[in-house]
TrEMBL record, chains A, B:
Domain Moybdenum cofactor oxidoreductase dimerisation: 194-309
Gene3D superfamilies: 2.60.40.650, Oxidoreductase, molybdopterin-binding domain (3.90.420.10)
Domain Oxidoreductase molybdopterin-binding: 2-173
Name of the featured protein: Sulfite oxidase
PANTHER family: SULFITE OXIDASE, MITOCHONDRIAL, SULFITE REDUCTASE
Organism the protein comes from: Alicyclobacillus fastidiosus
Presence of the UniProt keyword Metal-binding in the record: yes
Cofactors: Mo-molybdopterin
Name of a matching Pfam family: Oxidored_molyb
Record keywords, A-Z: Metal-binding, Molybdenum, Oxidoreductase
Amino acid sequence: MPYPKVDVDEWRLSVKGCVEEPLHLTYNDLLRLPQITQSVTLECAGNKRALRDPKTRGEQFLLGAISNAVWTGVPLQTILYLAGIRPEAQEIVFQGMDVGFRTDIPDLLSYSRSLPVTKAIHPDTLLALFMNYEPLPAKHGFPVRLVVPGWYAMGSVKWLRRILVIEHPFDGPYQSRDYVLYTRPDDYAHGVPITEIQVNSSIAYPTDQQTVRRGNQYVYGIAWSGSNNVTEIDISTDGGHIWQPADWIDSEQRYTWRRWSFHWKADLPGEYMIMSRASDESGAVQRQQALWNVKGYVNNSIHQVKVYVE
Amino acid sequence: MPYPKVDVDEWRLSVKGCVEEPLHLTYNDLLRLPQITQSVTLECAGNKRALRDPKTRGEQFLLGAISNAVWTGVPLQTILYLAGIRPEAQEIVFQGMDVGFRTDIPDLLSYSRSLPVTKAIHPDTLLALFMNYEPLPAKHGFPVRLVVPGWYAMGSVKWLRRILVIEHPFDGPYQSRDYVLYTRPDDYAHGVPITEIQVNSSIAYPTDQQTVRRGNQYVYGIAWSGSNNVTEIDISTDGGHIWQPADWIDSEQRYTWRRWSFHWKADLPGEYMIMSRASDESGAVQRQQALWNVKGYVNNSIHQVKVYVE
């Protein structure tokens, strides 16, 4: 499917529902409002699904369904204060311009997700107009996308066209069927909605099944968490028996991944299982096996790669 | 590593060794020689390595290490006739401008591969100057690359700088250690060099672990072989019990993949194992399990994806 194409002169962002003053904002209206800038890592809830064993249903993402960018835009709270949320408001629904069919619903559907009011009015939740100091590229949601720092990226709705304030929980399929942790097979009655990014790390080099030269090696990777800063990263080169701290390349920055490196004295030829394990300031630490769930979301298992030293 | 960057005014292609008349050709020299154009699929010998079970060493390619393009350039035989190969010539070595380190050799090395004289003077073997009717992009080997139709892509040396005619077999590491089928663990004495692309096919849609809607579905993919045309493509939707022919989207064209589609009446919800199996005009047919080898090359196992119908 092509990305939604938008004529900014005709585009309007409507803010409706349980508000004092419905709004119809132009792109220029948004550009004229005060902007903030922050670095935010966006991770797909299905990142690393392909590493699950046994396999789980859904797109088989490896390590690449994550990225980091600097976002500039209008705090969502500014818009909500302009519209005036009524006290009965419970959730805010964000509707994108991207439409498609699902297997479980007959009609054409646009992508919609909600936020509780508390997260929506958090000062870091953003209507982003710029990505890395340039207008949003078409594929990243031009003209305006939501950026919900600390949450998995399903919440950061792209190509926004409508904000609806409602008095009840939103039950759209991308809220109630997808992006929910169902931890028992065939039991869709009890699920936990996905919100905060869980502490995680990936080894970028060496890659799984790679052969490296004997001697001094450096292992590289990234570590991240949701709204908690990631504070520790430990590496094992012997399959999890001995753990040693790696060195941070980036300092702590909220909502933002941190690159790390680890000096590995790979003096003896052989097979090595290299593992990375991150912890965050809340005390959360990656486990050997992430929680199993039907759709394989939130895979924050300790990452491991098998490497051969020659 | 960045791609080699070439100033075409200074670049020369030297043709030396066991020849009557060594050549130093400029880019303009090559442009002025008669050109031919042909469509050629290039597949990495490690394509689909990640689908091997058990895993094998090397980069974990999935389905994407294959592409097709229309190549225009000077038949290699033209150059070899101009230089005059001597009767003692046994192989032709092609040296690229891409350099790097290996784990098993201390020195910096440029990528080099050889062809036997018979394959080198085959009228379809090409010094390509254009890809899809435009000058080669930097990453595809500008200014000139070899295109060896029907062979795995390790033979199609990019960023050419030197052609050396030799009187003995070439034993560079990319010829004698890599791109060789070692079929017994730890036995590097008996190997079969990789040459011709083996008959193969991939399912592009649906993807593994995808959920699709009940009713009429189309399965899409590609099938290919080396110097033999691919002639038949059969699909199973029940894990290999019943096979039915798919429909060709593309007609037969030598050295070129063919897209196919298969009308699948997915009327009943459930789990399906969809498989594709191609045959070529030599009678070769994909097997359930491709030949195991240490480095996991030439994975032409029948491709299978698990699909859920809802």
